[in-house]
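User: I'm putting together notes for a lab meeting next week and I want to include a structural view of one of the chains we've been expressing. I don't have a solved structure, so I'd like a prediction I can at least talk through. The sequence is below, exactly as it appears in our construct file.
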Amino acid sequence: MDIFLIVIFSAAALAVLCGAVYIVFFTRRRSGIGKRVLVTAAALISEVLLAFGIYVNIYYKADDTARAYLEDRGSVHVVKNDRGWLFDGAGEKDLLIFYHGGKVEAEAYAPLMSLIAERGCDCFLTDMPMRLPIFDISAAGKMIGQGGYERFFLGGHSLGGVAASKYAAANADKLSGLILLAAYPADSLPDTLPCLSVYGSEDRVLNMEEYRAAEANFPTDTETVVIDGGNHGQFGSYGAQSGDGEPKISPEAQWEQTAEAVSALLSHQ
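Assistant: Thanks for the context. Below is the predicted structure for the 269-residue chain, given as structure tokens.
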């Protein structure tokens, strides 16, 4: 899949450049200046397409620990479809739809989803286009109302949390709660929407200045949980993230504390 994307973007870039060259050398409708402008513009577009193709294919991969959670474990049954993975636990009433972090394989969040499902809330882990949640902010809308659930919650990590907050701001009436992991809302959220904000004390990726500046966008009664010793990357399982702080607790401990915080929010709704 990764090589395929690079080939697609490279082919698109080459096609743009070849098209411009053809127009310049095989038509006589443009002046010399116009031709040079056309070739320059085509070359720039080609470079942008190729650079974007490379950019989206440099990402954090789920490790073996995460992939082990894509199999059935205890009471949690895992089902894969073309949109992502359903972690079907003992609960029947609630569904958490989760947006993974930007440039992180969705599978990396399987351990956290499994632990939340184990506690009574089924989870659907979305697999976003090119691993960038901003390309499918409305993914939750495809799940809400399906599967016979009574309540739908939306959550996300990092860039996935920002994308989730944008959907929630426009569709609060469809949700029973929002869960942001190491993220802050891009738009103002209504006070009627229950919200949970969780981040680690050792997180050096989350910009705390921007987080504080965005506090006005949180609902008034937002529950904030700071995981002592947790960092940015350990909400998933994809290894050390560039620029992140050194964790003082294990990934398992961070997943457990996060799952407990999520379960507490659900139980109070």
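A couple of points you could mention at the meeting. The beta strands are 77-81, 84-88, 94-99, 122-126, 151-157, 177-181, 195-200, 223-227. The longest strand covers residues 151-157.

User: Perfect, that's what I needed.
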